[in-house]
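Annotated sample (chain length 242).
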Amino acid sequence: MPILQTPHAPSEAHHPKLWGLLIAHHCDRPRQWGEFELQLMQQLANQISIALAQAQLLENLEEMVEIRTTELKDVNHNLQQEINDRMQAEEALRRSEEQLRLVTNALPVLIAYVDAHQHYQFNNQAYEDWLGQSPATIYGSHLQEVWGAECYQRMQAHVEAALSGRVVTYENEIVLKGDRPCSISMTYIPHMNEQNIVQGFFALASDISDRKAIERMKDEFISALATSCARPSPPFTAPSKS
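Output written by the structure step:
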């Protein structure tokens, strides 16, 4: 009786391969095998075929499990390495931000980074000293929320110019905490990625109130001097002889 092995590939399922033969001998004399005996032999051959198929399937399955286990180990190793790399990068970024904040907090100027949607992503301690708003409060806030509608209206055109990729410097009048007026010089420096797409801009502001006050004093002095020179002199009268 043939022992047939059915391939596992679906495309070859209808083309079983001959694995071997199941042979029964009756050697002491000729014998005519009965129908029941032939059916029994056929059933045995079929069972052997099934057992062979299961054994091969188990062997293939064990091989697949081993391969898959190796792949999962590699994936887990790579994932763990990626997690470690990311943690190291985040730690390095945190240290860098701490150093940046330490340096910028010591400067008596406003320093900030604003994203392309005009929201603050970084600002130094001077913002709290000047405006009375903590860095945590300002973080994520829109420019208009921090500066107010009137001041933002004066800033808006310059902000849009910076977000278009231009370096902008201009002067503005702001109100510090305690309602103290202040003149500032503001500079916006665009931040672009490798594709030259603007991601946001760095904002630097310095107090120029003293300089503006000196300029006003000079202008007032010059104006007063010009007025004095333009005023006609009284007529000259010669002294009388006694």
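Annotation: The chain has a mean pLDDT of 84.
Annotation: Residues 35-105 form the longest helix (71 residues).
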